Amino acid sequence: MDREQRVVIAADRDIVTARQEGRQLASTLDFSSSDLTVIAVAISEVARNILSYAHTGAITLQVVEKNGRRGIMVVAEDAGPGIDDIGLALEDGFSTSGSLGLGLPGARRLMDEFEIRSEVGKGTTVILRKWAR
Fold this sequence. Notes:
Elements: E1 4-9, H1 12-27, H2 33-54, E2 57-66, E3 69-78, H3 86-89, H4 103-110, E4 113-119, E5 123-131
Antiparallel strand pairs: 1-2, 2-3, 3-5, 4-5
Helix pairs in contact: 1-2, 2-4
């Protein structure tokens, strides 16, 4: 399998594809089965946000190395409305779409590293990394 995969997110089925591709790529590393599930859930959360708020975007999955460790990096990008208040968006229960508000905070808790950049009117990029043990 390639060390990088890109999945366009434009429909519910694309979330399933991104989740499956991420799990498959992560399975080439030394992740436990529970870690594979965690990675798949985090991918689902950020992909769902793309559909809910921007309607289209992409998930890029990549094997990464740092200090002799290997892991997976998930980059979720969209050119949607952006996030006005990132701090508020990262609070459990906050939602502008009527959801449970667990997407971004949940993804942040599930992964080892979490970065977010957003500009109102230009879009959002979320970067997640999980390191194999």
